[in-house]
Batch of 3 targets.
Target 1
Amino acid sequence: MATLKFTTKIAGALADVTSVVLSDPTSTYAIQRTDTEVTIVAANTAMTWVSTGTYEYDFDEDINNVEYRFYVKWVYAGETYHVENIYTATGGATVVSEGRTMPSEIVWKYAVDITDLFTNPSDDAVWPLFVGMMPDGNDVANECGAVYNTAGYVEGKNMRSEIDQHFGIQIRVRSFSESDGYDQMVSVEKDFRDVHNQDVTFTSGETWRINNFYQTSPIISLGVDDRRRFNFTLNYALSMTSQ
């Protein structure tokens, strides 16, 4: 028997997510033999929560020296992700896999710590960037940005039989000045266009490589909000790999 262990980290720290099950992207199987492609465990089989950010499944049907493929499907902030794993059964082993830090958090880390496009909201400086929300109020800057996870897409498998997944993100800014807001988006557009194999490292030591940003929309004007601030968005498909 093997124990399949999956951990989820948000911004480099163990954290619970909405749900974790075993299932491939097409919901065809959870675990299969790689030699025969026979399904051993059905799709959408639940993993058991053990502790914060840690989930397990006891796989008692494995056979020594047989190679298996399994996918972990996990949901967080309304987005669904799949992580592929391949292991050879040795009897009684614990197979550990890890969930990804959210793409929006990786982009936030890049835009705040590596470039001068935005600042950390805690620094109380110009153009703070938020993750997953754009707060409002007297203590929040009118000129600010936010990065969101959006729908991505799967291109299929690459030559190593790995799922080639692109993660959707959206950058949004608001400003009382229409020209300032638009110019900020132009700066983002120009910077992201030149990104190639940029490493982003969290304080935990977790490192992600942004392979590239594929722009999927022009700069879009959303008009003004109820406080007469101009809003703009840019959409991307992000290619990234864990290091």
Note: The chain is about 10% helix and 50% strand.
Target 2
Amino acid sequence: MEKVHLLTLGCPKNLADSELMLGALTSAGFEITLDPEEAQVLLVNTCAFIEAAKKESIDAILEAAEVKKRGAGKRLVVAGCLSQRYATELAETMPEVDVFVGTGNFLDLPELLRRTESPENRPIPYAGAAHLLPTAAAARIKTGDFFTLT
């Protein structure tokens, strides 16, 4: 069973999206870990609302990339607003990222993580204004205080 570490940046909406991501991943058999070193999947849910948030998100992605380098078989996923708005540019400048998901397709994470094509051949999120409106039936992991939130 693969373990996932999630770092959420930004607004309360990102926290809600993160809880839905964790729900989708745990429903698909992934396990949550608070320790990025023991995770096979490093997931950074980014913010791009203001310039400072973009910088914080990029710094967090680069930190996660360093953790990825230290462990064989780790994958790095970038989600959220930064990925939604700038995935094409990020894919060109951050080859260490394996999967980009935006605000409209993050529930596809389990499938995207199981795909076998090389990262450069994976689809990137639609760069327009997309957002997922989940139903009440969507799995959700309430994070509370145990969750990595900055």
Note: The domain at 3-146 is CATH 3.40.50.12160 (Rossmann fold).
Target 3
Amino acid sequence: MKLKTGADCSGFFCCKKQLNIQLFLLFCNNLKHLQLLTKKTMKNFLLLALLFGFFACTQAPSYQVNVKMANAEGKAFLTQRIKGEWVKLDSSEFKNGECQFKGAVKNPEVYYLEVSSKKEKLIFFIENSPISITGVVDSLGSAKATGSAVHQEFQTLQDKLDAMDEQAMALYKQSKEAGKSGANNQSDSLMVLAENIFNDIDTQQKDYIKANPASYVSPYLLGRVYYEMEADVLESYLKGFDPKLDSVPTIVMLKERIAKLKSVAIGQTAPDFTMNDAEGNPVKLSDIYSKNEYTLVDFWASWCGPCRRENPNVVAVFNSNKAKGFGVFGVSLDTDKEKWLKAIADDQLTWPHVSDLKGWKNEAAAVYAVSSIPANLLVDKTGKIIGRNLREEKLQEKIAELLK
């Protein structure tokens, strides 16, 4: 019997062909589905990546201060000096001598690290970056802060100033020792050398400010040297700064000071005030100057060394000219009444004195923008201000000129 292979084989190949076609069509459909799925997945992936990138880019800048302080226990504080007061901004508990602070600042600012039970503070510039502070708690002021570019700029200058200060203090101590041994001429010579270096420290800072008007270090330095600047000088410094520094707290404070200084500048009428004398009796400034031809309003304190050194000069000018109409009105920034009265007696200050015993919060000092002492102003019989911060020979010369 002849096998009909042809027909049977033909049918098999036909079925196989149909199966292959069906599989091919199924593959194509799956491939299309896979392509669609891949496109959707890619779109979702790209969307997630964009969202992640957006949030990463818009995340607010911040700082992280890691403190590692040998032998430190208790709490650490970040503080600032605000309007003459120490203000605690943040705190962190030490664990095995380490603690951490997190936050953000608009601009680089001066902060201080304080450790509970320790009087010493570490000054450093904080900015939105990782910052490390390392040291020994018993020498907090010598700890090292790294990670802030602004602080590194400051520290480079401060190291130079510290070396100059050490040299000046060594001369100052030698001067004191020479004075105690009776070598007065040597003592005076050494004191002049010390004062020259102290003056040079101020000059170095003023030069730095002028050379770096866009540096965040410059406002801080100006805050250390502005004390005896009159309104026009201080204003010239502020006008030289880059506008980006306008919101720095020191700049804001100094602009307010300029406005106050202008109100008590030469040519203005001295703002009147009333304050109690040692017996508790109220004394009015205008009642004092109206009795004299010229009156020196003298801001001082018993604890102020430069004030006490200037007192003999004021006494000499007063004694030589009181008969001609020159008077002095002492305003003390003391807080201890007994020490205030003792200094008056010891220095033989025989003119009227007043004090509210509030120290640097003295109300009259605030009115006259007194931020360092000794400080004074000279007024005539009508209260018009005709001189400011006259000391040593300048006071003698001015009074001699007025009462000749």
Note: The chain has eleven helices and 15 strands.
